[in-house]
Amino acid sequence: MNNGYSSIRKESDILKMYTVPDKRFIAGHAIGIIAVDLNYPKLPGNVVNATTYDYPVLYEKVEFEIEQLFEGDGDIKEVILQAARKLQSQGVRAVVGACGFFANFQKDVADELEIPAFLSSMVQLPMIKLGIRTGKKIGIITASGNDITDKMLMDVGVSPEDCYIQDIGSLDGFKTIRHGYEYLDNESIARTVVEAAELLVQNHDDVGAILLECSDIPPYAFMVQEAVNLPVFDFITLINWVHHSVTQKPYYGHF
Q1: Beta strands of the chain (E only): which ranges?
Q2: Are the CB atoms for 169 and 144 separated by under 8 Å?
Q3: Which of 69, 101, 241, 253 is found 20 to 30 A from 108 (Cα to Cα)?
């Protein structure tokens, strides 16, 4: 398969002869995102708001109950695999998900594709653990704390003892997202996410970094960082990292 690493990098490339790889009808999108069909407003900073990125992305919608994803229901695996295959066929260079609980299907999708897949914000956990001081732990703020199992954490490469889980999905301030309201109480959600981070560091003085599991809460990452003065990782730190890896550019400057 042609993975689409052709590019125009200098003026002399403009007048060259090019062919269309794999007869694709669109081009220029390096990142493909699998997104569950949910109806509440998606603000800038949300994984499924395209203005979040400084580069084009391509979305593929999947339809099932979000609880099935939280629980890792095997009945939805083929739907996810089909979405990933479609994104690959349309020329993306990497596939990501739009919910941290796509971690339940990380290995399935990575083994299915010829291109890399980083489906969950939580695949960053081993790198975060490696980068913080020995004895420090990672605080995970999540939309469904009961569904982050020991197996899930071990499958993405960390020990459960390396993490603290802080649930916000059960809190009233997060209900307009968690229960699919058609409106978004942005102030309430922001306050809920920040208070969750503050509670984590108040209860655990060994937190060395925060990970925001949910794809809806990167808009509040800067508020979390201002509140707790720690590194904050989320889906956007992941997607930007992946995008950079598959769209490397030459450097110019003085030396």
Answers
A1: 31-36, 57-62, 94-97, 117-118, 137-142, 163-167, 207-212, 232-233
A2: yes
A3: 241
As its CATH architecture, domain 22-121+239-246 has: 3-Layer(aba) Sandwich (3.40)
CATH architecture of 124-233: 3-Layer(aba) Sandwich (3.40)
Residue 227, Cβ density class (10 Å: 0-12 exposed, 13-18 middle, ≥19 buried): middle
Domain extent listing, the chain: 22-121+239-246, 124-233
Taking only the tens place, the pLDDT of each residue in 166-221 is 999 999 988 888 777 778 889 999 999 999 999 999 999 999 999 999 999 999 99
Q: Establish whether domains 22-121+239-246 and 124-233 are of one fold.
A: yes
Structure tokens at 14: 């403009």
CB 231 within 8 A of CB 255: no
d(CA 160, CA 27): 41
